[in-house]
Amino acid sequence: MAQLLSSSCSLTISSRNKPYLKPLNQCSTPFSVMVGCNNSRSPLRRLSLRDQKPRKSFSAVHAAAVSTSQDTPVQTSSGDPFKAKRVMVFGGDGYCGWATALHLSNKGYEVAIVDNLVRRLFDHQLGLDSLTPISSIQNRLHRWKALTGKSIELYIGDICDFEFLAETFKSYEPDAVVHFAEQRSAPYSMIDRSRAVYTQQNNVIGTLNVLFAIKEYREQCHLVKLGTMGEYGTPNIDIEEGYITITHNGRTDTLPYPKQASSFYHLSKVHDSHNIAFTCKAWGIRATDLNQGVVYGVITDETAMHEELYNRFDYDAIFGTALNRFCVQAAVGHPLTVYGKGGQTRGFLDIRDTVRCVELAIANPANPGEFRVFNQFTEQFKVSELANLVTKAGEKLGLDVKTMSVPNPRVELEEHYYNCKNTKLIDLGLKPHFLSDSLLDSLLNFTVQYKDRVDTKQIMPGVSWRKVGVKTKTVPA
Ligand code: NAD
Ligand code: USQ
């Protein structure tokens, strides 16, 4: 058993020499980040994340920025002349954030990444690793600059540290901020009390700080915030995009759609949405909440340019998500882990659509005071349907794919009605990449390519919604 390090405290960069006061623009030496803990009783040890690996020399696949297939310029629909040029991507070292930062840079936006690298720390703590080898953020940015000539600025720090966040706003002066920087795993938030508290503290306070920073330093700045479809839960009626018009006792109003989140993580997103909605009303902030479904895939036009730009691909039971996990399981001959009856239905989207949706939201900003909600997914699937699709695609590749029913570690409906609206991003010009046979084939082929990196011990779920307790838990290594 490996002792897991609890994260029940705020994580701050050591501020002795205030490394964040200048952007780490294409820094040429490895940069050391100290992640500290305010609570001396917490088992979170001080940990130095230093890029110690020798730089590998990879061969370039392309030598210039590429155009994406959906290159049509987007128009501002709000009639508001505000156009974003400078975009800060919070959480830009993560799965969605890295792909988005590169995409926006490729599209001509000036981009800065803000990240405290805590996600890499979680992997160290839990003994997890991405299916794909991922370079340090510094090497990623060097490679991007070398291939395209485009610079992405880097601020390493914790958005829960308001002093740090304020400096990034004053120094970079963003027109738009894309906020991915949260603890985003539902199972992680259900490990024990300390992870539940950390998740809500990190996510809610981080978002609150971003709102205060916009109010104080950059009131025109458009907040593009990643929410989740899981905020709505699985009600027995159609799910609208953010709001529902209700007639009650003869009176009619349009109200926020009811929220029924089913983990401490998903609940943190609900709290965020309420705080954002309130500050749009009270302070006139312009915000778009992207209620994203489950993302799958790993390749975008930009990350495919070079191995050093490759994105992370989580397949473990804590950070891995359904379809990505099933593809890895098929690649290594592990039965597909359908939880419970498998009738759980969710919205899904390709990561290439994630980056395009964010681009569309930025190019068509909300009006001052407006709190827009877009449902960001392209197709709905039952978990059992995904398992069947992966089985068929695997058989075509000569893989022997089996499915097992795993006792459901979560508390969720396993058979239910699900019908969600998702027209707003389509209306702005999104042309979805649907999960065709060929897409599944290429995703499976990709996972087969890296199957030797899979640690099969990380596949079965070990976190139970019912057994979450006060005591800090260790997780088997
Ligand atoms: P991720 O864990 O890969 O990336 C999150 C990044 O944010 C990491 O690099 C982490 O270091 C950083 N971060 C976290 N807290 C921070 C803080 N306080 N200060 C600075 N940086 C911090 O997650 P992801 O899959 O890229 O998800 C990004 C966002 O999209 C999350 O908000 C998540 O809720 C949302 N989302 C993800 C999915 C999905 O399927 N991956 C689906 C719907 C919504
Ligand atoms: N599931 C299985 N087997 C698995 C993994 C998952 O049956 O091996 C089931 C789960 O029980 C659940 C569904 O698949 O019913 C989705 O689970 P998931 O782990 O793929 O996704 P989830 O925990 O909901 O979280 C992910 C991201 C999160 C994001 C969310 C979008 O980690 O950041 O907010 O997807 S949504 O689900 O729309 O809320």
Structural write-up:
The protein has 477 residues and is of the alpha/beta class. It has one domain: 3-Layer(aba) Sandwich (Rossmann fold). The protein is built from twelve helices and 17 strands. It has helices at 95-106, 118-126, 137-148, 162-172, 186-189, 193-217, 264-283, 322-332, 351-363, 383-396, 424-427, 437-449; strands spanning 11-13, 33-37, 47-49, 86-90, 110-115, 152-156, 176-179, 222-228, 243-248, 251-256, 286-292, 294-296, 336-339, 345-350, 371-376, 379-382, 403-406. The chain has a seven-stranded parallel sheet, with helices on both faces. α8 (322-332) crosses α12 (437-449). Residues 184-186, 228-230, 293-294, 321-322, 325, 337-339, 344, 346-347, 383, 410, 412 line the site of sulfoquinovose-uridine-C1,5'-diphosphate (USQ).
- Whole-number tally of structural domains: 1
Q: Supply the CATH architecture.
A: 3-Layer(aba) Sandwich
Q: Are any ligands bound, and if so which?
A: nicotinamide-adenine-dinucleotide, sulfoquinovose-uridine-C1,5'-diphosphate
Silhouette: globular
H/E topology pattern: EEEEHEHHEHEHHEEEHEEHEEHEEHEHH
Cα separation of the termini: 6 Å
Number of helices: 12
CATH class: Alpha Beta
Measured on Cα atoms, how large is the radius of gyration? Answer: 21 Å
- The helix fraction, in percent, is 25-40%
The main sheet orders its strands as 6-5-4-7-8-11-15
CATH fold-level name: Rossmann fold
- The total beta strand count reads 17
Estimated structural class: alpha/beta
